[in-house]
Amino acid sequence: MPIPYTKPSAPPRDKRWKIVATRMRRLGDRPEALIEALHAAQEAFGFLDTDALQFVGDTLGVPHSRIYGVATFYSFFTLKPQGDHTCVVCTGTACYINGAGDILDAFDDTLGVKPKGTTEDGKISLLTARCIGACSLAPAVVVDGEMKGKADRAALMAQLEAM
Amino acid sequence: MSDNAAGAPATRRRKITIDPNQGPVRATARVCEAASCISGGSTDITARLGELTDDSGDVAIKRVGCLGLCAAGPLVEIAETAELFEHVSPDTVDPVVAALQSVKPDAERQPQGPFFEKQVRVATENFGKVDPESLDDYLAEGGFQALRRVLSDMTSAEVREEISQSGLRGRGGAGFPTGLKWTTVAKATGDKKYVICNADEGDPGAFMDRSVLESDPYRVLEGMAIAAFAVHATEGYIYCRAEYPLAVTRLRTAIRLAQRAGYLGDNIMDTSFSFSIQIRLGAGAFVCGEETALIASVEGRRGTPRPRPPYPAVQGLWGSPTLINNVESLASVPTILREGPERYAEIGVGKSKGTKVFALAGRVVNTGLVEVPMGMTLREIIFDIGGGIIDDRPFKAVQTGGPSGGCIPAEHLDTPVSYESLIELGSFMGSGGIIIMDETSCMVDVAKFFQDFCREESCGKCTPCRVGTTQMYMLLDQITRGEATEDDLAQLERLAGIVAKMSLCGLGQGAPNPIFSTLRYFRDEYMAHIVDKACPAGVCPIEQPAEVVA
Q1: Average pLDDT of B218-243?
Q2: Is B236 helix (H, G, I), strand (E, B) or coil?
Q3: Is the pLDDT confidence value at B503 over 80?
Q4: pLDDT tens track for B512-542
Q5: Which of A21, B135, B499, B544 is most buried, with most CB under 10 Å away?
Q6: Which CATH number fits the domain B443-549, given the four candidates 3.40.50.170, 1.10.3380.30, 1.20.1440.230, 3.20.20.20?
Q7: Is there a cis peptide before residue B105, judged by omega within 30 degrees of 0?
């Protein structure tokens, strides 16, 4: 590379950056590690803020425009902080046939939150997934990483309100 | 590795496979630990059974992959008698323990009913038998024998020839002959070649690949290694959805153990053949199932497709010839080479050879995973294996092929399933999701659901797909709200034709299919929405005078 290049240092005072830096180093700090690096950053921090995007982009030598493009292209990445609890409602075909729409309505009615939104008290974030492959358990909901099959609207709302 | 990891490795700390101390095993309980049963608490069942049978020295408790009948999970099977316990919980394991105690040494597996008996297992042959993370289990079932045979007795041309003879076609949906694809990559010029396993199973309603990866990950690695040998590749990638954490974990374990045992890595089985595999995670983009988009994503870029040719077989990852095969295709490879291509080619019908794994879901009694020979009729799959419709309601339609597929009505239930027959019916084999619908589904709303999917998942690169899918969605939305005229319907049909012809990749080309097929078989429902302003299934929110609602 003809342009002199110095490797950026991680934003200070947070050990979680090390996890991200290590994951990138394992893949050779090359541009193709971008998506893996964003996965690592989101796992560590819960979402991707400007610092994270800049650090990852600078380390891998990816222009900021492109890294923003990638981070916004893939629906798995989120640029906003999430609530204390995240709830993913599957909206795949089997779940749609078996009433995922009702469950989303229940979120709106009971908690006043729409997909990709967070409740006003910052407790619960609602996301939708295109299909989590739990079609035999439709409708499926994932609460804080734990899958709940054959979700019942009333029971689910009761559980979330108690959180 | 902080608090969120604390939940997951709990299974690892626990004694997962409890073998009696070297004594002969009289009875084995197989506990299903695939995603669906795990969400029902099956890891606790394994532990509980372990505790209860700890002192009986001839009983083994074993964690296995998907037992198939997900609807009745968590499942426990007694290996010797094939007795299946459904809806088990850690508190209700007593009957299982009793059954284990009473197994006679000369017990034989009993018939298990049509759900199991009508299936023919190739890609899923080890499901419910092996511990997904145990290399020893896989070896005991004949694992890596095909790779050994390939490396010691065959040339790469012979391997490609056998795959061609078997008649295997791409199980990702398009049905391209696998042998031909391998030959193209093998003959392409390039210093370096790659094999990519497409595990970006994006079709909503499909979970075959997930089950294969979760229940028998070594099989996919073996299939990839054989493919790599046949096309002279040295590096492989598995592009897996991030939504499948358990599959990714098991794959990572499998790769590590296979590498340590010398089935992957440098000089595999002491030959000059070297092949290594890395995992790349997807990030929730459906279009990445398209091979050129997938390559862009593996390279760390936005997953947008590019025009073909050049095909990836000639110019793929980093510009090198690249073989991209679906999980299920690769999972069929070891069996084909172990048992011989003739045996595989005997199964099936016409140009569609072998078996196909289907994921049954929707309003069907036995939701779950099945593998059936090509040429079985939809009726057999849905009513004999699937057990019919929930609550014995009337069957309305079956949707195959995901968002690029179509809905098939009752009058075509006796069609034998093959790539060709489904296309003739206006649908598509797709990756193998079968969604069964009863009269509670409105077909216009179904078409709208898929259009909404395609609209959101369109990558935005080409105009027909980016704009067309949104416009089609808006027209369908108008119809479901009872605000459309017959002119709108004509406009919808015209637009659908344009999008199908003009789009760059399969996503846009297939996006109008749900509209075409529902119009072909259920035009009366569209007309009911447009002319009578009523939704026959009562799904769509049409504002109307009260007496029509009743």
Answers
A1: 96
A2: strand
A3: yes
A4: 999 999 999 999 999 999 999 999 998 888 7
A5: B499
A6: 1.20.1440.230
A7: no
Model confidence at B353, pLDDT cuts 50, 70, 90, reads: very high
Shortest Cα–Cα distance, A61 to chain B (Å):
12
Nearest CA in chain B to A91: B204
How many whole angstroms separate alpha carbon B279 and alpha carbon B300? 13
H-helix segments, B202-290: 208-215, 217-231, 245-260
Out of B243, B300, B361, the one facing A35 most closely (by C-beta) is: B300
A92 shares contact with chain B (CB less than 8 Å): yes
B284/A130 CB distance under 8 A: yes
A136/B361 CB distance under 8 A: yes
B285 and A73 within 8 Å at the Cβ level: the answer is yes
- Other Cβ atoms closer than 10 A to B235: 18
Phi, psi of B237 (to 5 degrees): -130, 145
Spacing of C-alpha A78 from chain mean position: 5
Work out the pLDDT band at B170, boundaries 50, 70, 90.
Answer: very high
Identify the pLDDT of residue A2.
62
CATH class held by domain B13-111: alpha beta
E strand intervals along B330-455: 348-349, 352-353, 355-362, 368-373, 395-400, 406-409, 433-438
Chain A CB contacts of B437 under 8 Å are 97
- Provide the ipTM: 0.88
- Order of strands, sheet of B368-373, starting from the edge strand that comes earlier in the sequence: B368-373, B355-362, B433-438, B395-400, B406-409
Exposed, middle or buried: residue A157 (CB in 10 Å: 0-12, 13-18, 19+)? middle
**Helix pair angle (B94-101, B42-52), 10° resolution:** 50
Going from N- to C-terminal start, the domains of chain B cover: 13-111, 135-345, 347-438, 443-549
Chain B residue with minimum CA distance to A88:
B243
Identify the residue among B367, B428, B438 best suited for mutation to test binding to A, counting A beta carbons within 10 A and taking the highest.
B367
Enter the tokens of residue B89.
Answer: 């919980």
Start-end of H helices in B80-177: 94-101, 114-117, 135-140, 145-153, 156-166
What pLDDT does residue B36 have?
85
Backbone angles phi, psi at B512, to 5 degrees: -75, -10
- Which residue among A73, A76, A94 places its CB closest to the CB of B361? A94
Measured between CA atoms, the residue of chain A closest to residue B403 is A93
**pLDDT tens-digit profile of B90-120?**
999 999 999 998 888 888 888 888 899 999 9
User: How large is the average pLDDT for residues B246-257?
Assistant: 95
Residues B385-400 pLDDT 10s: 999 999 999 999 999 9
How high is the pLDDT of residue B7? Answer: 35
- Which of B39, B298, B299 shows the shortest C-beta gap to A149? B39
Task: Give the HSE-up count for residue B13: Cα atoms under 13 Å, Cβ half-sphere.
Answer: 6
Distance (Å) from the alpha carbon of A4 to chain B's nearest alpha carbon: 23
A-B Cβ pairs (cutoff 8 Å, strict)? 140
Residues of chain A with pLDDT under 70: 1-13
A97 and B437: CB-CB below 8 Å? yes
Fold (CATH) for B135-345: Rossmann fold (3.40.50)
Q: For chain A, give me the number of helices (H) and strands (E)?
A: 7, 4
Q: What is the pLDDT of residue A93?
A: 86
Tell if the CB–CB gap between B368 and A136 is shorter than 8 Å.
yes
The CATH number given to B347-438 is 3.10.20.600
In the prediction, which pLDDT does A7 show? 66
